[in-house]
Design a protein that fits this description.
mainly beta
Length: 734
């Protein structure tokens, strides 16, 4: 019986001992961590003093508290269970040497300051326990943060519930990151809580990057070294450098049901990436790196290419229908083609390039930076009127914009060319009738002159006015099926530069009627009448005079040798002072080269001519300006001519046809020296779209035929080189 009682008492003594809490040490004033007498079990120093015996300092089973007003510097690697820094306390390294505080407990509470607030302080955190949370309202500036190789836990869960800055930076060639897993065959599961922001800032010279599988996403031999885990972003993660979205692990299902090999970035809040998201280029291992954007999340990208080395066997991007992707680079960015975007926002000021057709299913937001589509299209599938938001001279589509439309709605088309404020030439389209479902309208703008070959009149409250010429330096190319709609052009000042009394008020809407012609009102521009869709039309100017002072019978120009001969005739003239002849070599900038006196008032036909022998070889554009006695004026249709100015010993294009071309364009040439004869064709932005040697080129007469069926409508410039000769000219594509 006594033996039994003694055994029972023994149990009563042992149980409290097994549940005894960890020792807590308090700092005893400012100074170095390993100073004699630095740590005591009582705040006032009356307890037991910790005796340090060399690095690692501290005690992995003990809690450490920096007391109010104490500033403690690290001398080397230090181990703690829990760490507390109150509001006026501070723990930092004091130099740039990378030094870890190894944490084995459940809490790091920072109300004061952890780190010295700059990249020159090397203090870092290594999480080695099963679960830990970083809390507090203080300032946390670390060099690096990782799960450490000292951990014995299969899975470490770290929750960050406060703002943290990571200030480790490195060049991409070294592939060393600021946030990563450093524990072989163990998982690091990181959660950034809602409302918390982790900023991977870099060191001021190099940006900071992150990975899960080791310091670069490639930890070593994939069959033996597995560093895996999940980063869940409920708050905000800002990465100035790269996200290593890759692993060389094999996926091994453990007995605990853990996928020992896969890594995941799960975004419920916001992920901002200043560099690139770098995937598996080789496909080593069968582990999968997954980027998952959930409903309400935002991925903001500022890198040049954003996604690189994405491998279909090892990388997957999963985007919820209600996630937003933002391209926010200040320099040119490529829009990743492997995604169907629901909400796409463009900001940051840099241009955005398309390498393929890009589809936006819901909302396109144009904040800053232009979209350069090239031969591709930016497609907006939503029929909501606000499916395209923003759009300004600071952000518009340079190239091809296609959007879906439905009945009785007004849609904005923020398009232009040139990529600057003067190039912004948008329009709005209002659906009128004849549309019961959904249609698409595709549009682009080209800085090129269109002309009106016929004199036309329109009626206003002031009486009859005439549409006399196309004055705008630009054309809109708008394609749709047959339904009724109305278009209102909003040309830029540069586009209107040659229009008298320039201003948007001169250019109201143009109406297309289903199954019929358009309604052509005053001050409206159109290239062809009738038409089935708005295609390659420009702005025309309606002369403000009720009675036309000059009734023009015709105006033409032709090449005669090295000179251009202009001819025009009038049916009647009223108060006609004179004509001015203007010449341009590019179709944009004109200069006055001659003045021809008018007849003042005449009621019978008058003929005029002028020979320009000073133009020189090449293409030239002429326009005729008629000036009244009171100084008012009007321009007539622009004409163009090519003057060769060449001797018989130089290469020359004899004829090019048809012009404009539809499917094929043929050129007949005289080439004295056929050596290395070739042709190159460029669009108006200088991009080469065609390049070919002239096959079987012989000295003398040659002919070539080009397939232009896939070219976009517009004006193209060609350059033919043969021996020492160079021929330049233009091709118009319908």
């Amino acid at each position: 019986m006594m033996k039994h009682l003694t055994y029972t008492v023994g149990l009563l003594i042992v149980c409290p001992f097994l549940t005894f809490s960890q020792t807590t040490y308090y700092s005893q004033g400012p100074g170095s961590w390993d100073d004699v007498g630095r740590w005591n079990t009582e705040p006032d120093g009356s307890g037991t003093t910790l005796v340090e015996s060399g690095s690692p300092y501290g005690d992995s089973l003990a809690n450490f508290i920096i007391q109010e007003g104490d500033e403690v510097t690290l001398d080397g690697r230090t181990q703690v269970n829990n760490l507390t820094v109150p509001s006026t306390g501070k723990l930092y390294r004091g130099s740039g040497t990378l030094t870890y505080v190894e944490v084995y407990g459940a809490e790091i509470n920072i109300e004061g300051q952890l780190g010295d607030g700059n990249a020159n302080d090397g203090i870092s955190l290594e999480i080695n326990g099963a679960a830990c949370e970083i809390t507090g309202n203080g300032q946390v500036d670390l060099k690096r943060l990782r799960k450490g190789d000292e951990s014995t836990e299969a899975v470490t869960d770290l929750t960050i519930s406060t703002d943290i800055n990571l200030r480790y930076g490195d060049s991409r060639s070294n592939y060393r990151t600021a946030l990563y897993n450093n524990a072989t065959s163990q998982a690091f599961d990181l959660t950034i809580a809602s409302g918390a922001t982790v900023s991977v800032l870099g060191d001021g010279t190099n940006p900071g990057s992150i990975s899960i599988d080791g310091t670069s996403g490639v930890s070593g031999t994939f069959a033996t070294e597995r560093l895996y885990g999940t980063f869940t972003i409920n708050g905000t993660l800002v990465v100035s450098g790269d996200v290593f979205f890759r692993t060389d692990n094999n996926d091994v299902a453990s007995t605990a049901g853990i996928d020992e090999g896969n890594i995941s970035f799960i975004v419920n809040g916001t992920l901002k990436v200043g560099g690139e998201i770098i995937g598996n280029s080789t496909g080593d291992g069968d582990g999968v790196a997954s980027l998952q954007l959930n409903s309400g999340s935002t991925l903001e990208l500022s890198g040049a290419t954003n996604f690189i080395d994405i491998h279909p066997d090892n990388n997957e991007v999963l985007i919820d229908a209600h996630a937003t992707i933002v391209y926010a680079g200040s320099s040119t960015q490529q829009i990743f083609e492997g995604i169907t975007y629901r909400d796409l926002k463009l900001s940051g000021g840099g241009d955005k390039e398309l390498t393929s057709d890009i589809i936006v299913s819901n909302t396109l937001i144009l904040e800053s930076g232009d979209v350069l589509t090239g031969a591709n299209k930016l497609i907006v599938e939503s029929t909501a009127s606000d499916a395209i938001q923003g759009g300004s001279e600071n952000s518009y589509v340079v190239g091809n914009l296609q959007r879906a439309v439905d009945a009785s709605t007004t849609y904005a088309f923020p398009i232009g060319q040139g990529g600057d404020a003067d190039g912004y030439n948008p329009f709005t389209l209002e659906v009128m009738a004849g549309l019961s479902g959904t249609e698409t309208v595709e549009a682009s703008f080209t800085s090129a002159m269109e002309t009106i070959d016929e004199e036309r009149t329109c009626e206003t409250d002031e009486g009859t006015q005439r549409l006399s010429y196309a004055c705008a330096v630009g054309t809109w190319d708008i394609t749709s099926n047959d339904f009724s709609y109305e278009i209102t052009l909003q040309p830029s000042a540069a586009t209107q530069a040659d229009c008298p009394n320039e201003g948007v008020s001169l250019f109201p809407s143009i109406r297309k009627v289903e199954g019929g012609d358009q309604s052509l009102g005053c001050n409206e521009g159109i290239a062809d009448v009738p038409f089935n869709s708005f295609s390659t039309f420009s702005i025309a100017y309606a002369a403000l005079a009720v009675a036309a002072p000059v009734e023009l019978l015709g105006f033409d120009v032709e090449a005669q040798g090295t000179a251009a001969v202009l001819w025009w005739a009038t049916a009647t003239e009223t108060n006609n002072s004179h004509f001015e002849i203007e010449r341009s070599s590019d179709g944009f900038s004109y200069e006055v080269i001659a003045r021809v006196e008018g007849m003042s008032t005449a009621f019978e036909a008058q003929e005029y001519s002028y020979t320009d022998s000073m133009a020189g070889p090449g293409w030239h554009y002429y326009r005729l300006k008629q000036v009244d006695l009171n100084g008012e004026y009007v321009y007539f249709t622009i004409r163009e001519v090519e003057l060769s100015g060449r001797s018989s010993l130089q290469a020359a294009v004899l004829i090019g046809y048809p012009n404009p071309a539809d499917n094929y364009y043929k050129m007949e040439m005289e080439i004295p020296d056929p050596k290395n004869a070739m042709i190159k064709v460029f669009d108006l932005r200088g991009n080469q779209i065609y390049h070919a040697m002239i096959a079987n080129c012989a000295s003398g007469y040659n002919a070539i035929e080009m397939d232009v069926s896939t070219w976009q409508s517009g004006i193209y410039m060609y350059m033919i080189t043969a021996g020492a000769d160079v021929i330049r000219g233009k091709i118009v594509k319908t």
